[in-house]
């Protein structure tokens, strides 16, 4: 048992086997269909979610974990850990970070550190996995936090939403006012700036968006000795596999994974969305 417990929210979408192997505790966000609330990963799988999306007339919404759930999780972990490091999705798109901070203030006898990943999905997962691996080797909280801060300048993610109206409707698209009317019809490349989602480049088609994202990756991947890359998809595994295969061939030094936009993020991006995230190690 390591001294430092690692906690993440569900939107890092780290598979359960990996969470078990690395001792990662997951706190789920919720997806809400009408009057039914599902904790993602626990009450609804990604497959069930996308199937339900097709049947439903009223689109789902999402909500952050309750303060009580965070407090309960922290109380439990505080029994046998001196420190708890919590890695959340970006504070600019969800209240999860703030709720974790408020819950941490309710727990005594343990140092709780809340880290804003400023991103989400398996890219947030890069931070979580690194922290968990360090915790397992006995690293202390200060060392792990320093590593997480250092990683921020090496982590990138660009993505496109198949249907921008979901992001717009949920109020999670910033800086698009100037061309929002036309933009709902097109596939701009999106990214995070100051914790928020903003358009990076306005392109018309998915093909062009993916080509742009690959070009942005190339700037880093061609000079990297080691790089982790994740191709993220919203219920579009074939699309992701094609991109991943191409990247594996082009960058033999890279670890290329496929990951997904689960229920909460899928609610905001829609089915068919894709993204690429990477973390340059050297
Ligand atoms: C909540 O209700 O608190 C959750 C809100 C989640 C908003 C998600 C917006 C899309 C994020 C895309 C992340 C792409 C990462 C590569």
UniProtKB/TrEMBL annotation:
InterPro entries xrefs: DegV (IPR003797), DegV_C (IPR043168), DegV_domain_contain (IPR050270)
Alphabetized UniProt keyword annotations: Lipid-binding
Any Pfam family the entry gives: DegV
SUPFAM superfamilies documented for this protein: DAK1/DegV-like
The organism's place on the tree of life at top rank: Bacteria
Molecular function (Gene Ontology), one example: lipid binding
UniProt keyword Magnesium present: no
Name of the molecule in the record: DegV family protein
């Amino acid at each position: 048992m390591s001294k430092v417990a690692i906690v993440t929210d569900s939107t890092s979408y780290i598979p359960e086997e990996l969470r078990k192997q690395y001792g990662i505790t997951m706190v789920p966000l919720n997806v809400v269909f009408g009057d039914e609330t599902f904790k993602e990963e626990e009450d609804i799988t990604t497959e069930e979610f996308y199937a339900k999306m097709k049947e439903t007339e009223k689109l789902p919404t999402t909500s952050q974990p309750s303060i009580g759930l965070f407090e309960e999780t922290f109380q439990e972990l505080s029994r046998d850990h001196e420190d708890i490091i919590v890695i959340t999705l970006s504070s600019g798109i969800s209240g999860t970070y703030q709720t974790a901070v408020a819950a941490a203030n309710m727990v005594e006898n343990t140092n709780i550190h809340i880290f804003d990943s400023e991103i989400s999905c398996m890219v947030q997962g890069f931070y979580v996995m690194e922290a968990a691996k360090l915790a397992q080797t006995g690293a202390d909280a200060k060392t792990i936090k320093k590593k997480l801060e250092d990683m921020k300048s090496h982590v990138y993610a660009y993505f496109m939403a198949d249907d921008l109206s979901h992001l717009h409707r949920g109020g999670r698209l910033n800086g698009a006012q100037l061309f929002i009317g036309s933009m709902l019809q097109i596939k701009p490349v999106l990214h995070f700036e100051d914790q928020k989602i903003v358009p990076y480049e306005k392109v018309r088609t998915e093909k062009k968006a993916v080509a742009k994202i690959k070009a942005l990756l190339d700037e880093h991947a061609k000079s990297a000795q080691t790089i982790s890359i994740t191709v993220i998809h919203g219920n579009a595994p074939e699309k992701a596999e094609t991109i991943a295969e191409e990247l594996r061939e082009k960058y033999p030094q890279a670890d290329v994974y496929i990951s997904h936009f689960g229920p909460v993020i899928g609610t905001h991006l829609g089915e068919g969305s894709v993204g690429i995230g990477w973390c340059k190690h050297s």
